[in-house]
What we know:
The chain is built from 4 helices and no strands. The protein has 82 residues and is mostly helical. 9% of the residues are buried.
Amino acid sequence: MKIKQLLEDLKAYDPEDEVIVGYWTKDLVNEWFEDTHKPLTDTQWKVVVDGIGLDPMQFEELGELIQELASEQAEELPEEEE
């Protein structure tokens, strides 16, 4: 989801309403794999975001799906020679 869409969706609510929001950014997801994979490109990140879809899911399940999709997209770093 693009941030502009989220902001548009949130306009339907009173700014004083309480909500729970979870989001993952490309930078955050890249940190998960920084020791084993090259950083995701914008194109690879879009594949991950599109792979999430709009179906409701549990928070933990969503995090696992993001990790799985990002792992599939990111290129592994070459192994260090000793």
